[in-house]
Amino acid sequence: MSNIKASIITIGDELLIGQTIDTNSAWIAQRLNELGIDVLRRVAVGDNRNDIIDALDAELASSSIVLITGGLGPTADDITKPLLNEYFGGTMRIHEPTKEHVRELFTKRNRPFLERNLKQAELPDNCIVLFNQMGTAPGMWFEKDNKVIISMPGVPFEMVSIMENEALDRIKERFITGSIIHRSVITAGEGESFIADKIQDLEEALPVYIKLAYLPGAGMVKLRLTAKGANKEKLITELDYWQNRFAERLSYIMVSLEDIPMEQIIGDWMKTHHATIGLAESCTGGNIAHHFTQVMGASTYFCGSIVCYQVPVKVNVLGVNEQTIDQYGSVSEQTATEMAKGALNVFHSNYSFAITGLLSLGGESDKKPVGTVWMAVANKDRVVTKEFHFHYDRLRNKEMATSMAMLMIWKFITNRI
Amino acid sequence: MSNIKASIITIGDELLIGQTIDTNSAWIAQRLNELGIDVLRRVAVGDNRNDIIDALDAELASSSIVLITGGLGPTADDITKPLLNEYFGGTMRIHEPTKEHVRELFTKRNRPFLERNLKQAELPDNCIVLFNQMGTAPGMWFEKDNKVIISMPGVPFEMVSIMENEALDRIKERFITGSIIHRSVITAGEGESFIADKIQDLEEALPVYIKLAYLPGAGMVKLRLTAKGANKEKLITELDYWQNRFAERLSYIMVSLEDIPMEQIIGDWMKTHHATIGLAESCTGGNIAHHFTQVMGASTYFCGSIVCYQVPVKVNVLGVNEQTIDQYGSVSEQTATEMAKGALNVFHSNYSFAITGLLSLGGESDKKPVGTVWMAVANKDRVVTKEFHFHYDRLRNKEMATSMAMLMIWKFITNRI
Questions:
Q1: Shortest Cα distance from B213 to chain A (angstroms)?
Q2: pTM of this prediction?
């Protein structure tokens, strides 16, 4: 069975000069994928008439659905709407419901309704207007030669709103598709090559309609199994079988069968065990707490974090002994241990985690080499410490340290360390 | 003057199913842009032989430089290298320096050197090998019909390392280019349409070789002026003139003439004024601290943050009065004010900022509507509070609140509130 093919075109000079990172394409691709639609290509072009037309021509030649984001704002550098109107042979007319919606939005926000805002309500008369409840520029659904072209604004939450409320159901109705099923096996602590060697025979035994992909991340490798076919029930049964076989083989490094972030895996564990956790963060500067609080409902188990970026905060708030810092340095096993114990006291939590390190030059004056990080994880009975060395730049080291922190917490609570 | 054209091809099924957000393209586009090279298109294709060849054919037809990322890992789902070898008519041979480098890396990391790792050192004999000091897969530089094709691994920091140490200088040498200069005017507090109306006459008066673009973000609009031409000095003079004219016109909402993040603008101010700041974060869960500590050298002015996600932390660590919380709720002007004052005490800082809110359902039990946030910014002489309402989902509300927090701090320290 061959899947319906789609292409994504993103329009905007800001994408080509690298001012904006394209998150829309990944989101759209995920949603289409869930419907069993394959994204064939993603193309980014500038705010340039000929380049947009070339991209449309090329993608319409190979895909049944072309999704376009960007180029619909109210300012002069947006040229997409008149171009699409012309491309599909329509006439621009004021769309009354859109006009009312735009006027209402401006009233609600106490802004004057300007002449140029009226332009947002001018739409080709040969498209289905996709209502944008999050903003002023609606989406547009064109059909041509049995193919569908959907144009949406580039602002991510506006695009998401139009897709979820207007476009996805229409796509489902319009294109009958088979099923595509994904299963994951999330591992931590071993590299891609090592895992590939461990599972080579299983990988070779996979039926042709099940594909295996390696998705390496910081300290982790995600294995993704994908099956395509018409019989959804059969696919699920088979894929579950293979997922289990891979999971068994990799049990000693297996973290989860679900592709969810580590902070959520820890959060679920905390909820199940009615446990709480508090942090003491120096070098990660609040990033671990930020990750914990991305999970809805984290306040039931996540107490908080003492971000002790300067030394006195470690002493005054966490109760780290000044002598410890003088003797061993603020980046040391001893300081990390006292920070973790301090966090248990401050938060009255079941678990605590502490981190102190030197992620780049120009930070705290310490004699440790750049990249040195000490972590400690504790409960009332025990403390486990570990030293890390990160070799990249400041921002990457911070993300790496955050990932490693999550892993260390997970290993501690599941008694693997 | 017409600029050199480049295309970026990203390879990998993970991009088409949306598992990975492509940050490489934006980074590469920025670097090429700085050299005066225009990125014409960015294309993402899957790990599929024909799609890769089609993309190569299409991009080589219109661009002088084609940069490829992805598809070079050691596992079976990577097909790019043999394909490029064939495409450019080479022969695969073991490249001794790469083999030694890979072996060394494995020794350093205490991992066994496996047969499949040797594959990383097998390279087409008709390319210039671009050394990868961050990983095992080197980059490759091919030339064909006076065009250059550069293939690099998809792991972002490996790609960055190869570009910075190997590829960019070669690109500079190989292609003589004119200049492209950017200038920014960063504003806060007004929308895109409003600004467009304010500066319409200036925009219309711009010479043809200077382009203006609007880049809206959370609560901010960046204006970017871009000039292209052969005479760099002349361009700079002219662009500075126009930048000043736009900045003057928008002075009352102007934040910066440099396109740097708000946390760095605040940081620079703090350094200049020998001031310090500490935070008390509830709903942003450490994200504001995380942003502050992204800036190198932040420890000279950023003390830390009390991430008080649960109520007792507000009381025990920040000294918020329990009665205040009982009477007004934890999301209230009164609680925010006491949190800010508490942070001044805890950190002994010149400035403090506090935030408490309800970013999504399922959080703290409070009678306020979802999206309500109170912020307070203080020094020893005064406290300014402000109520916000955010209407999006949890993660977006958190980012919006963080942006608004930065703006509020900046306005307070520059005496605009």
A1: 7
A2: 0.78
